[in-house]
From TrEMBL:
It is an enzyme of class 1 (oxidoreductase). It comes from uncultured marine bacterium HF10_19P19. This is Probable beta-carotene 15,15'-dioxygenase. Its cofactor is Fe(2+). Fe cation binds at H23, H79, H198, H202. Pfam families: BCD. It catalyses: all-trans-beta-carotene + O2 = 2 all-trans-retinal. Keywords: Cell membrane, Dioxygenase, Iron, Membrane, Metal-binding, Oxidoreductase, Transmembrane, Transmembrane helix. Belongs to the Brp/Blh beta-carotene diooxygenase family. Its main location: membrane. The chain crosses the membrane at residues 47-78, 125-143, 150-168, 174-197, 218-240, 252-272. Catalyzes the cleavage of beta-carotene at its central double bond (15,15') to yield two molecules of all-trans-retinal.
């Protein structure tokens, strides 16, 4: 049982809710850019499907929490890694490009999903147990061999950085982040990466693109509405858990942040990773 979160932990979780979580709130504006806003029926259909996917993800977490947590970690690796490496240019043969891209995605995406839990095994084990029950320690056990794969990918990435200048800055960023997640408490390390690195990079990468299709006012209003809706969902989830008496207030706060984050990650990934990047990016870049 986690009865008392430190002040640092509380600030970290609050940052995820106030800064990190809303970075996906601009999905409505993105959907409009991709053509869902051509009619009221299409935008309503998009919102319904988005909420259904989020609700289904949350339901899976409640029914099979260990499976849901493991799936969330895998999806996070792909989403974080894809988002944080899309700006890197990769010249060379296609096989080399794909192999190096896979290494980049794994290394960037595994920073807080593989490296951080290994650095802070005891603390993260407690968090995983709160999120998914005692069987969640199986995930910690699986992360140890995953670390070997991560290190191999990091070595390949580092070697590429020695010969290609465009990778040097990214490799330096990774080295700094590795030190940071080692020194900081796990929740603080996750919050720094999620809020300052990933969310900031995601927002800046789509901001100019969205303004080619819709106004700033529409972007901000739609983002504000979806942000408020996500916070309302979080409040409902938190109070339902505290009122049940099964979790302490701090445990309910942890579960609220990560279950809500996981639930919104699935539709966010489908929109951003499978629709936005291969379509809107082609339109907006020469």
């Amino acid at each position: 049982m986690i009865d008392i979160l430190s002040v640092t932990d509380l600030f970290a979780l609050a940052a995820v809710m106030l800064i990190g979580l809303p970075h996906g709130a601009f999905d409505g504006a993105l959907a409009f850019c991709l053509g869902f806003g051509r009619s009221p029926g299409k935008i309503i259909g998009f919102l319904v499907m988005y909420l259904l996917l989020a609700g289904l993800s949350a339901l899976i977490w409640l029914v099979s929490p260990v499976f849901a947590l493991a799936g969330f970690l895998v999806l996070t690796i792909v989403h974080f890694g894809s988002g944080d490496t899309e700006h890197l240019f990769q010249p060379g043969p296609r096989v080399v490009q794909r192999s190096l891209k896979a290494c980049q995605i794994l290394v960037h995406g595994g920073m807080v999903t593989i490296l951080l839990p290994v650095f802070h095994t005891t603390e993260v084990s407690q968090l995983f147990i709160v999120l998914a029950g005692p069987n969640a320690v199986l995930i910690i056990d699986a992360l140890r061999p995953a670390l070997k794969i991560w290190l191999a990918a990091a070595c390949i990435y580092a070697s590429a950085a020695l010969f290609k200048r465009q990778y040097a800055a990214a490799a330096g960023e990774l080295a700094g982040l590795a030190v940071l997640v080692w020194l900081l408490p796990p929740l603080a390390g996750f919050a720094v990466y999620f809020c300052i690195v990933h969310s900031r990079r995601h927002f800046t990468s789509i901001w100019k693109a969205m303004q080619l299709f819709v106004s700033r006012r529409f972007i901000l209003i739609s983002g504000g509405i979806l942000t408020a809706a996500s916070w309302a969902m979080g409040a409902g989830l938190y109070f339902s858990q505290t009122m049940s008496g099964s979790f302490s207030p701090d445990e309910a706060f942890i579960r609220t942040v990560f279950i809500l984050l996981a639930a919104l990650t699935v539709p966010h990934m489908l929109l951003v990773d499978t629709m936005y990047r291969p379509t809107l990016k082609k339109i907006t870049q020469p």
